[in-house]
Amino acid sequence: MWAFLKYKVKKIFIKTFSPFLNRLQDFEKAIEENRILIGKTLIKDLVSKEKITAISEIEFKIFSQSGEDGIIQYLISKVPINNDTFIEFGVGDYKESNTRFLLINNNWKGLVIDGNEENIDTIKSSDIYWRHDLTALGAFITKENINDLIKNNGITGDIGLLSIDIDGNDYWVWDAINIVSPRIVVCEYNSIFGSKEAISIPYEESFYRTKAHHSNLYFGASLKALCFLAQKKGYLFFGSEHTGSNAFFVRKDVASNITPTSCEAGYVMSRARESRDSDGLLTFISGQDRLKQIGHLKVIDVQTLNEINLCDSIMQPQSASIVK
After folding, report:
1. CA–CA separation, 40 and 73 (whole Å)
2. Which terminal residue of the chain, N or C, has fewer Cβ atoms less than 10 Å from its own Cβ?
3. Domains along the sequence of the chain with CATH
4. pTM (2 decimals)?
5. Residue range 39-59, pLDDT digits in tens
6. 156 touches 180 (CB < 8 A)
């Protein structure tokens, strides 16, 4: 009897609300199509720029968190792409990401990875999954498994773009990747770590940002650490988007049309006030006050591999930089 009642209630619900749900889906689809049309218009303007004086001139947001969509479109117009394949880590449900516009507007193909299986199910059940050549994989990424995750999904060698945003071992995972050679790399950095020291959180296979420190401020690597790694792997630093979250790198052998910048000039301090207290509530701490929350925690100087306190590292006189 109970099963029958559940069945009847479900049928009534579907019959009552299906028209509204269909209208909502149509509305969301129309919004997405309009956003893409706006993006196409903006692309015409930015690809015509022979020279830019600031990266903000080429930023625009269609599906990215901030201005990454515009920067990526500019870069692929200047960098020759032989294999229009991307890989992106930490995509959530893929509604906000660095590669969604590439997938839809430019018809690239790619692999997206997220540690939450519900997010992967959402991606696979959406229209975008059958309309495009997209593979969604549920996996917790480590430096030990990343190359196998990529290789086992049929991607090796030269690819167009790699985007890394895993709120933790970003530096160590990029350092470990050798199965692919992306021409463009987008990687999140932690601006609270400053611009003068090449530091990262110590590698921990099971690192989880909130568990590491309740503030959610202790994660990732400094921009200088990423610039150091980029130089080691054969990349030039192009710049950071205006919110101070993501840095952009281009492989040297295909960067003849790109003007690189220095780590110091390209550094942007984030103004996001995302810190939380021990109960998980936002505290709205800003500026250097954020450093006080995590200054006692350990970081690794990636140039020497020495472990030091974060606060001690940032407050030291600037050392001679390997990255110019």
Report:
1. 10
2. N
3. 3-315 (3.40.50.150)
4. 0.88
5. 888 888 887 877 888 899 999
6. yes
